[in-house]
Specification:
The protein is of the alpha/beta class. It has five helices and seven strands, in the order H-H-E-E-E-H-E-H-E-E-E-H. The protein folds into two domains: 34 residues, no CATH class; 146 residues, 3-Layer(aba) Sandwich (Glutaredoxin). A hairpin with a 4-residue loop joins strand 1 and strand 2. The protein is globular. It starts with a helix and ends with a helix. The mean pLDDT is 90. InterPro entries: Redoxin, Thioredoxin-like_sf, Thioredoxin_domain, Thioredoxin_ResA/DsbE_sf.
Length: 188
């Protein structure tokens, strides 16, 4: 008993490390840790904001309907590149779902994944998410090409990249909501 009292923190650390090696427990632990450390995304400074030079990006809704990103010209848009196998992507989805509930009719949301439609459907149904998910049919505009998942962009009405975030974040944070509200009030 004395051994346990002296070494309880070491035992917990070893147990945690062992759980990270077990496939069934690794992913939930990674998701949980990502949620713990997720903060509000920071904005790109005004002088460093790139302007999207091209909105031409062919996408497909999960029901097979083709969509072109150009429909978001002149609108505030959030673009999230993600995958169902990516723990940081999964970690930030609840905050996106809450944000989408409040801003879905004001902001264009694009959750883009290269995975098969059936796998994406199963994930959304299991989590009870209503997020608009798309599959890419062509390469995104140059300023939005990324090899990291998740990567999220927030575009202003005039096409400026206001947020360029790689990794998970808390998208339902009051600071990010203030940024969205400010962008929605801007005139073209």
């Amino acid at each position: 008993m004395e051994f346990l009292k002296k070494n309880w923190s070491n035992i917990l650390l070893i147990a945690f490390i062992v759980l990270l090696f077990i496939p069934q427990t690794r992913k939930p632990l990674q998701v949980g840790l990502n949620r713990l450390i997720a903060f509000s995304p920071s904005t790109v400074s005004e002088k460093d904001r790139e302007v999207l030079d091209n909105y031409n990006w062919n996408l497909r809704k999960l029901d097979g309907t083709p969509v072109n990103f150009s429909q978001s010209t002149g609108r505030v848009a959030i673009i999230n590149l993600w995958a169902t196998w990516c723990p940081p992507c999964i970690a930030e989805m609840p905050s996106f779902e809450k944000l989408y509930e409040d801003y879905g009719n004001k902001v264009d949301f694009y959750f883009v994944s290269s995975e098969e439609a059936e796998k994406l459907h199963r994930f959304l149904e299991k989590k009870n998410y209503r997020l608009p998910v798309y599959q890419p049919l062509s390469m995104p505009p140059g300023q939005m090409q990324s090899t990291s998942l998740p990567t999220t962009y927030l575009l202003s009405k005039n096409g400026k990249i206001v947020v360029d975030k790689k990794g998970s974040a808390n998208w339902n944070d009051s600071g990010f909501r203030k940024t969205l509200d400010k962008l929605l009030e801007e005139r073209l």
